[in-house]
């Protein structure tokens, strides 16, 4: 997703575009996206082709930041690019807390874990659409609710970890850590659940400190915070894709720590160690796209289905 800075109000709106690549342009409440993956400049979305061409020619080049001024033509007569109304979804009907505590309408998005590369979230197998009744944090844990009754039992967590190829020891340890930490805060009322079950409807109460702040306190996904993780602590590969080594993820936990927040730091350590073990990248670099899949839970289903096929 790309946002421009408005230079001056006029009939033809001007923007400064700064990005290493352009996947979409947001202007006056509308999104402009390339058709079939390429911008068709011959039919012109924008009048200043020269700058646009410069960006598009180098759109996959790394370590280059482009600054260009673009003047749009009449929005109603533009062709050569797809245009649709830009809408930001911040509430989920069956998650009341998202209505009670609405965010400012910036880049928050409840239903999809969006990045510049995946502006519509996970589209494989219609994942985002299938999970539109959940916040992204709820999607993150949905995989472990094996029977889809909205409650995650310790046995379901163990089964889920085993499906993700973790060994018995790590799976049992994870059940202990996860259910001792999240069962009480997600239960209804004040009386603890003797079975240590986790209720997905209240999973937003399980957000801890010293994290990346990618999830907000209601469970929404904040793209800015997600991408900040990689620009602050990760590295960009020769192919332009951002990634993070295990050491860099530890630097992230250290850098994001809050004062005296031992629980949050320990939680962050557990999450990044388990994420690295899950991804187990051959080159030692956790790719942004795979980490995004962990955040919205789609990666869990991907790994699980690969195992079943094998
Ligand atoms: Ca269940």
Automatic annotation (TrEMBL):
PROSITE patterns: EF_HAND_2 (PS50222). Residues 109-125 have a biased composition (Basic and acidic residues). It comes from the Eukaryota. GO terms for molecular function: calcium ion binding; monooxygenase activity. Residues 132-167 form the EF-hand domain. The chain crosses the membrane at residues 166-185. Keywords: Membrane, Transmembrane, Transmembrane helix. Residues 105-125 are annotated as: Disordered. The keyword RNA-binding does not apply. The keyword Lipid biosynthesis does not apply. InterPro entries: Caleosin-related, EF_hand_dom. Belongs to the caleosin family. This is EF-hand domain-containing protein.
């Amino acid at each position: 997703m790309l946002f421009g800075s408005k230079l001056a109000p006029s009939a033809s709106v001007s923007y400064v575009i700064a990005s290493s690549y352009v996947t979409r342009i947001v202007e006056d409440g509308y999104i402009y996206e390339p058709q079939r993956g390429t911008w068709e400049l011959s039919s012109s979305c924008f009048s200043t082709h020269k700058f646009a061409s410069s960006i598009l020619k180098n759109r996959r080049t790394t370590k280059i930041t482009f600054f260009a001024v673009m003047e749009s033509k009449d929005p109603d007569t533009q062709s050569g690019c797809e245009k649709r109304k830009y809408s930001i979804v911040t509430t989920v009907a069956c998650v009341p807390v998202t209505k009670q505590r609405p965010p400012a309408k910036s880049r928050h998005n409840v239903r999809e874990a969006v990045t510049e590369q995946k502006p519509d979230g996970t589209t494989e197998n219609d994942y985002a659409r299938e999970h539109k009744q959940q916040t992204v944090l709820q999607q993150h844990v949905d995989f472990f609710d094996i029977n889809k009754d909205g409650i995650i039992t310790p046995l379901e967590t163990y089964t889920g970890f085993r499906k993700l190829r973790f060994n018995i020891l790590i799976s049992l340890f994870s059940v202990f850590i996860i259910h001792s930490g999240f069962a009480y805060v997600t239960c209804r009322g004040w009386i603890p659940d003797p079975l240590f079950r986790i209720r997905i409807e209240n999973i937003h109460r399980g957000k801890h400190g010293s994290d990346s702040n990618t999830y907000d306190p209601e469970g929404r996904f904040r793209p800015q915070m997600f991408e900040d993780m990689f620009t602050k602590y990760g590295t960009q590969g020769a192919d332009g894709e951002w990634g993070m080594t295990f050491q860099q993820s530890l630097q992230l936990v250290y850098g994001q720590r809050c004062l005296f927040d031992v629980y949050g730091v320990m939680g962050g350590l557990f999450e990044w160690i388990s994420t690295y073990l899950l991804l187990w990248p051959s080159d030692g670099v956790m790719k942004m796209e795979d980490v995004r899949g962990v955040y919205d839970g789609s990666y869990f289903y991907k790994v699980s289905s690969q195992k079943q096929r094998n």
